[in-house]
Amino acid sequence: MSSLYRLRAITRPHNLSPHRSLTRLSLTQPHPFRPSPISPAQTNLSPPQQSYSTTTTSPENTQPQHQHRQQNNHHDQNQQSQNEPTPPFPPLHPLRLLLSYLKLLALAHLIWNNLLSLAPAQGPSMLATYPITGTWHLTSRLSRLGRNLSIGDIVTFTLPDRPSAIGVKRVIGLPGDYVLIGTPGPAADDALMLQSSITYQHKQQVPEGHVYLVGDNLPASNDSRIFGPVPLGLIRGKVIASMEPSFTRGPFANFEWVRNPMKKTEPPTREEVLAARDLE
């Protein structure tokens, strides 16, 4: 048996050897368990190319998209402007600040000289209408120079004998009116006795361009009975309100509007005129 097997092994052709067939196959085909060798041409790898698809759109389709983009841009800008903090006001230039103060002073000067003015008053000449001290008068400058005055109005004026002082008196005579001028007699505490003590001396007509002013407290008043009728050019305004400011009750304490107590009357009769002549 052994000789037979030997013969067969010697007579087997070489091309049928399993080892040679395997080596030949390994040179031509990759081994299933070994990685294939990389050629030098495959070392420079390029990134994968992306494919883009382009679609052609008509102008009718692009216009709404463009408008939508603009709306989105405006919306984003509005949100950014709302989120951004508001910057503080820049400091004013000194010249501009000075100009604003000058405008304010000019406006106050215009109101003070043409519309309203406020001034204190003191003295016993307007008792018992106003106290001696502590009264402030709100004056309408629209009635300066004697415009729109009537009998019984309280006015402020520049004193003819003291141009630096301002007086407060009541109008009892307009241009062209006749005024019975009297001087008060001895001082009396009772108002009725004071009225009966007045003795009329003479009658005077108020000249044109003048008014006749007297105080409510006749015995202690320096008025037209002493310095004569007052020119209309010295009238500063008509008192429309009065107040008594104080630290405890505020600046508008006892504020009240001034009303004219006089009423328009009929002209005197002939008998009253004759009686007035008899008193002269």
Automatic annotation (TrEMBL):
<dbReference type="InterPro" id="IPR036286">
    <property type="entry name" value="LexA/Signal_pep-like_sf"/>
</dbReference>
<dbReference type="InterPro" id="IPR019533">
    <property type="entry name" value="Peptidase_S26"/>
</dbReference>
<comment type="similarity">
    <text>Belongs to the peptidase S26 family. IMP1 subfamily.</text>
</comment>
<feature type="active site">
    <location>
        <position position="125"/>
    </location>
</feature>
<dbReference type="InterPro" id="IPR000223">
    <property type="entry name" value="Pept_S26A_signal_pept_1"/>
</dbReference>
<protein>
    <recommendedName>
        <fullName>Mitochondrial inner membrane protease subunit</fullName>
        <ecNumber>3.4.21.-</ecNumber>
    </recommendedName>
</protein>
<dbReference type="GO" id="GO:0006627">
    <property type="term" value="P:protein processing involved in protein targeting to mitochondrion"/>
</dbReference>
<dbReference type="GO" id="GO:0006465">
    <property type="term" value="P:signal peptide processing"/>
</dbReference>
<feature type="active site">
    <location>
        <position position="169"/>
    </location>
</feature>
<keyword id="KW-0378">Hydrolase</keyword>
<dbReference type="Pfam" id="PF10502">
    <property type="entry name" value="Peptidase_S26"/>
</dbReference>
<keyword id="KW-0645">Protease</keyword>
<dbReference type="InterPro" id="IPR052064">
    <property type="entry name" value="Mito_IMP1_subunit"/>
</dbReference>
<feature type="domain" description="Peptidase S26">
    <location>
        <begin position="97"/>
        <end position="180"/>
    </location>
</feature>
<dbReference type="GO" id="GO:0004252">
    <property type="term" value="F:serine-type endopeptidase activity"/>
</dbReference>
<keyword id="KW-0472">Membrane</keyword>
<feature type="domain" description="Peptidase S26">
    <location>
        <begin position="197"/>
        <end position="241"/>
    </location>
</feature>
<dbReference type="GO" id="GO:0042720">
    <property type="term" value="C:mitochondrial inner membrane peptidase complex"/>
</dbReference>
<keyword id="KW-0999">Mitochondrion inner membrane</keyword>
<keyword id="KW-0496">Mitochondrion</keyword>
<feature type="region of interest" description="Disordered">
    <location>
        <begin position="27"/>
        <end position="89"/>
    </location>
</feature>
<feature type="compositionally biased region" description="Low complexity">
    <location>
        <begin position="46"/>
        <end position="65"/>
    </location>
</feature>
